[in-house]
Amino acid sequence: MIEEKIKSIGIKIPIPPNPAGSYIPVVKSGNLLFVSGQIPMEDGKVVFTGKVSDANIETAKKAAIVCAVNILAQIKKEIGDLEKISRIVKLSGFVNAVPEFTQHPKVINAASDLLYEIFGEKGKHARVALGVSSLPLNSMTEIDAIVEIK
């Protein structure tokens, strides 16, 4: 049902990107999954790079959506079935922003809204949205997640 919902909104869950450093993509502890920060990668390339400003906020929202899709891809690789997700607990969103940019929540809302659209009430979560001076590979956004599973 979840994967049908994802397909119905036009999203394809990709093969997740490999780690770009000395870490693992997902750590399972009890019934929680801690998903490492995901950047907007597609087919092994960062698709949204550079600093976020008021002029390119819509592009940054697209970057956040790709991060959320990559979170789901990592979860699917780890547990095999997105139906096992019982709750999106928390997202931490980072925006590679110019110093005067203050709309970080609007950027990360794109990821939050997507997860709510897919999971309904189970997709509502706690969150932090921060501006940072740089991100790996000059990506516009990076998002990590804590997810509860059945």
TrEMBL record:
Endoribonuclease L-PSP/chorismate mutase-like domain sequence ranges: 5-143
Listed Pfam families: YjgF_endoribonc
Positions in coiled-coil regions: none
Taxonomic superkingdom: Archaea
Annotated protein name in UniProt: Endoribonuclease L-PSP
Biological source species: Candidatus Nitrosarchaeum limnium BG20
Taxonomic path: Archaea, Nitrososphaerota, Nitrososphaeria, Nitrosopumilales, Nitrosopumilaceae
